[in-house]
Write a structure and sequence with these properties.
Its main location: cytoplasm. By secondary structure, the protein is an alpha/beta fold. It has 16 helices and eight strands.
Length: 425
């Protein structure tokens, strides 16, 4: 296989992105025939949803271009983000997130041995990092810190100081993880520009920033871990997936804020394209892609579909027969022109999601460790307390009361009732 040119590698690194800041920095590294280093981070708070497929699928492109990828499990950030994760749950949720991410990467055919996983607390609690954090706090205004985290940190009426520290620490992570560019959602843009402004003021290099598009929720608007009806969990059962997709907003001919249609463009078709490219041997510098793959690795095309089909929609012959698409643009046009009915689209999307989640759910069901971590990370808020423990606690309270009143349990002592309370009252 011929060595990919710097131009081709840059195209791989930046395709399907929403925005690129500092692309010339990456071009310069590639021109020097060096391997760029990047990091993608996530704070282990709520349960990860299928919107995570967007950045995780993109990491395949980075590996194909020879990029060294670090995955940051930002446990300290999870605690600092206002009201999202109590400190005692963060450690369990960090383990849960790692299980999920490994399972998703394997389902995508991405070789996990090429990824470096780092927990934020492994370096964010060091003397050096904290001194840099204090240096940053000495030059950052409250206004800039609040503005930077406006779209990422949970906004409350009376914000805590912890939320103001969040953007600065995310900027410092670029230095301490030794990356050339940071990758994240377009909702991180203000934090990225904050880092570009303030890291040089500490004497550190300015990094590039790559942003993937955000997938709308099933009801329109942002897909959120805190709103179960707006998203699909990685571990949702097939019947749950189909029920949520059936309820999702998908007005005929309306492609705006359509989470069902957007998911096809942002997740299903890119994964199909990756699989087609892999079948043709086009994996660039990542010769190991697909070796650890779990689950069905065929594109989302029906049997008998034309070559190059990346998404098919089954329809009975009475309704014109199945539809096959080689691009998202074709699919979107058909939907806007009402040639594709929402019901048919929903059925095809639900089938695709069930296929995507099957190997992830299987990995969970086969791992007793993961199942135990899940219970600890997300305890059932409606679970009834253990009655046995409750009885023991009651007995201990009674025992303490009796001991306090110096009652001899071996000697029956008669205590007359108050006036008017006896049996013959």
């Amino acid at each position: 296989m011929a060595v990919a040119s710097a131009e081709h590698k840059y195209e791989l690194i930046t395709r399907r992105l929403d925005e690129v800041l500092g692309g010339d920095l990456i071009k310069g590294i590639l021109a020097e025939e060096r391997a760029p280093k990047c990091y993608w981070g996530t704070a282990p708070t709520g349960r990860p949803h299928i919107g995570y497929f967007v950045p995780l699928t993109k990491i395949a492109d980075f590996l194909r271009a020879g990029v060294e990828v670090t995955v940051l499990l930002a446990d300290v950030h999870a605690f600092l983000d206002n009201l999202k994760a109590p400190l005692e749950l963060v450690a369990h949720r960090t383990k849960y997130y790692k299980h999920i991410l490994l399972a998703v990467f394997k389902s995508l055919g991405i070789p996990t041995h090429k990824l470096r996983f780092v927990e934020g607390s492994s370096y964010q609690l060091t003397k050096e990092y904290n001194l840099d954090n204090y240096r940053l706090c000495a030059i950052v205004t409250e206004h800039d810190a609040k503005k930077a985290g406006a779209e990422v940190v949970k906004q409350v009426e009376s914000p805590l100081l912890s939320g103001l520290l969040y953007p600065g620490m995310q900027a410092l992570d670029e230095q301490y993880l030794g990356c050339d560019f940071q990758f994240g959602g377009v909702d991180q843009r203000k934090i990225f520009t904050f880092a570009e402004l303030y890291l040089p003021r500490l004497g550190y290099a300015k990094r590039a920033h790559l942003m993937n598009p955000m997938v709308p929720g099933l009801g329109g608007g942002k897909m959120s871990s805190s709103d179960p009806d707006s998203k699909i969990d990685f571990l949702d059962a097939p019947e749950v997936v189909r029920r949520k997709i059936k309820k999702a907003f998908c007005e005929e001919g309306n492609a705006k804020d359509n989470g069902v249609l957007a998911f096809v463009g942002a997740v299903v078709i890119p994964i199909s394209e990756l699989r087609l490219e892999r079948l043709r041997g086009n994996t660039g510098a990542d010769a190991d892609e697909g070796a650890e793959a779990a689950g069905d690795q065929t594109p989302f095309a029906l049997e008998g579909a034309p070559d190059g089909t990346v998404f098919s929609v089954y329809r009975k012959e009475d309704y014109g027969g199945s539809l096959h698409y080689a691009s998202f643009a074709q699919l979107k046009q058909d939907f806007e022109e009402k040639k594709l009915h929402p019901k048919d689209l929903k059925t095809a999307v639900a089938d695709a999601i069930v296929r995507l989640l099957e190997p992830i759910r299987k990995a969970f069901e086969e791992s007793a460790e993961w199942q135990e971590v899940e219970k600890l990370a997300y305890p059932d808020p409606n679970a009834k307390p253990d009655k046995k423990k409750k009885k023991v606690r009651c007995l201990s309270v009674v025992g303490a009361y009796l001991a306090y009143n110096f009652v001899d349990l071996q000697e029956k002592v008669y205590h007359p009732p108050p006036p008017g309370k006896g049996k013959n009252a």
